[in-house]
Specification:
globular; Immunoglobulin-like; 4 helices; 5-stranded antiparallel beta sheet; about 450 residues; about 45% strand
Length: about 450
């Protein structure tokens, strides 16, 4: 079952993966500002200037600061630099904009560190035209120095949200001491950028999928809306569900799928999605083809899980939503939903336990698995409770040598699982070949 990860840890992992980082800090300064990069006004019938409303969008907040107008997107030379945030510690200025940068639309950002400490700046909770969409940006500036950097949005990420161009960009600027993550933030300020453009297309349109799939509403309540926007059974490396999400609450929500079962077998997707209050997202829940095949699945036919939504800023609080979700998908494949598992052979299948609660069978053994010697297990949970299985007091050839293994199986579900011993642990015990393994099998209710 997915557990809630403290926000600071998840943000640190995000730094390692996409070179964007942030840290939970107490605040020295917080504020909210709106800057306009060009007037977005059209004269009404009486000649008065009025802001055009976009479908599905509310009127943008009035700017709290002044900014010079720019030419429509495509003429970056007319861009006028604008201060986005300014404190005693640092000043952040947008000095230019290139709509067709190397990766996609790109702002040139100048950061002046006026403090006596090195600062790291990041953009948090970024949205483009109301959709969650993080830029590629982080900027480290030594004490008393300045630095130019580029804040870019990937064309691919924008297209995945149906975004045709940058119209309204929002994010929170955070600056913190590089050498003291626990120190008060030097800057924490909400920024809104309104762009001028003359493109004939609307800011947001329908996402163009290579293989369109019928849309389907999954959950629609006062807190959020989540719908299946598309299904791709094979994009070359994974089977993917494109999920459209609207957060209607006043909290930042995080969404996960727990106890995911595909075609009757445990098979969790690579997915979680965080959506800011009042914002939207299109997020991909993916199962790698290798993971599906190891789970005895050819393609997604049926999906059952518990859909969870909880306050991303209070991971100790009760879930705001935790309900079962089931989905049946259509596929054009001529193969059956389940595949016949194939093993190298040479191992005598052994039943470890088979009673009214569960079945556990050792199907295969690979002495040269990815992590070390690996036992392939088949499990069937016959109860109406989610069960967790572990091995205790494990010995191999009479030497204490525990494996890396535990297994969680939803009620009535099945699972294939790999129980592995690390090669260094095996070598440390001078185990040349596995002759016999002894252990105590423990099965208990996961929620109790």
């Amino acid at each position: 079952m997915l557990k809630r990860i403290p926000k600071a840890l998840s943000l640190f992992l995000a730094l390692c993966l996409v070179l964007c980082c942030c840290s939970g800090c107490a605040l020295l300064f917080s504020g909210e500002k709106t800057w306009s990069f060009g007037a977005r006004e059209t004269p009404d019938a009486g000649g008065a200037a009025t802001a055009p409303a976009q479908a599905g969008q509310t009127d943008a907040p009035a700017p709290t600061g002044s900014a010079g107008p720019t030419e429509p997107a495509g003429n970056a030379a007319a861009f006028r630099e604008t201060v986005l945030a300014s404190t005693d510690a640092c000043v952040v200025t947008a000095t230019g904009f290139e709509p067709d940068g190397l990766w996609g639309p790109t702002f040139t950002i100048l950061v002046e560190n006026k403090s006596e400490k090195p600062l790291m700046l990041v953009a948090e909770d970024a949205t483009v035209n109301g959709f969650m969409c993080d830029p590629f940006w982080m900027c480290e500036v030594p004490a008393g120095k300045k630095a130019n950097s580029e804040m870019s949005w990937s064309d691919t990420a924008l297209a995945a949200c149906g975004i045709n161009y940058l119209d309204i960009v929002e994010f929170t600027l955070r600056a913190y001491d590089v050498n003291d993550y626990g120190a008060p933030a030097a800057l924490l300020e909400a920024v809104e950028i309104q762009m001028e453009h003359s493109a004939p297309l609307p800011p947001v349109g329908e996402v163009a999928y290579a293989n369109p799939y019928p849309k389907q509403t999954l959950v629609d309540n006062g807190l959020f809306l989540i719908a299946l926007d598309n299904y791709n059974p094979d994009d070359g490396w994974a089977a993917t569900l494109a999920l459209y999400i609207e957060n209607r609450s006043d909290k930042t929500l995080n969404f996960t799928m727990d106890d995911a079962v595909v075609n009757g077998f445990m098979c969790s997707p690579y997915w979680s999605c965080e959506v800011a209050p009042g914002k939207k997202a299109i997020s991909a829940a993916s199962w790698t083809l290798d993971l599906l095949h190891k789970s005895g699945v050819n393609y997604l036919d049926t999906l059952a899980c518990r859909l969870r939504a909880y306050d991303a800023d209070d991971w100790t609080a009760d879930d705001l939503y935790n309900e079962p979700l089931s989905l049946r998908l259509s596929n054009a494949s001529s193969l059956p939903p389940l595949r016949e598992m194939e093993f190298a052979g040479g191992f005598r299948e052994q039943t470890i336990v088979d009673d009214g609660l569960l079945t556990l069978i050792a199907l295969d053994f690979n002495p040269d698995g990815d992590w070390g010697p690996t036992l392939v297990l088949y499990c069937e949970n016959k109860t109406n409770k989610t069960l967790t299985l572990t091995m205790e007091d494990v010995s191999v050839n009479d030497f204490i040598c525990p494996p890396y293994w535990y297994l969680e199986v939803a009620p009535g579900a099945k699972a294939y699982s790999e129980c592995s011993w690390s090669t260094p642990d095996v070598e440390a015990n001078d185990i040349a070949a596995f002759e016999a393994a002894e252990f105590t099998l423990r099965a208990y209710e996961s929620d109790n």
